[in-house]
Amino acid sequence: METLTITMPDNHIGRLKELALDFNVTMEELIRLSIESLLLQPEISLQQAMDYVLDKNRDLYRRLA
């Protein structure tokens, strides 16, 4: 695992601290979880699209098989 250092404006840091307190996590955990969620989003959307297409065309695929 690597360590990442970022620079942010003070007002963003203050808001992150508030959110971390609200969620009862550290600021680092909040940032890490947010980034992980962002990175997983395209995979979730792709899976939803595939499920929709497969469900919508289920009968057609059965007839073509």
Low-confidence regions: none
β content, as a range?
under 5%
Query: Structural class given helices, strands, pairing?
Result: mainly alpha
What's the rounded overall pLDDT mean? Answer: 89
Radius of gyration: 20 Å
Give the termini separation. Answer: 46 Å
Spell out the helices and strands N to C: HHH
| Total number of helices | 3
Q: How many beta-strand runs?
A: 0
Which descriptor suits the 3D outline?
Answer: elongated
Number of domains: 1
Helix content: over 70%
Largest sheet: none
Question: Which characteristics define this entry?
Answer:
3 helices, 0% strand, 65 residues, mainly alpha
Descriptive notes:
With 65 residues, the chain is mostly helical. The protein has one domain (11-64). 78% of the residues lie in helices and 0% in strands. The protein has 3 helices and no strands. The longest helix is centred in the middle third of the chain and has 30 residues, at 27-56. The termini are far apart. 0% of the residues are buried.
What can be said about this structure in brief?
The chain is mainly alpha-helical and 65 residues long. The protein has helices spanning 10-23, 27-56, 58-64.
Please write out the topology.
Blueprint: H1 10-23, H2 27-56, H3 58-64
Helix pairs in contact: 1-2
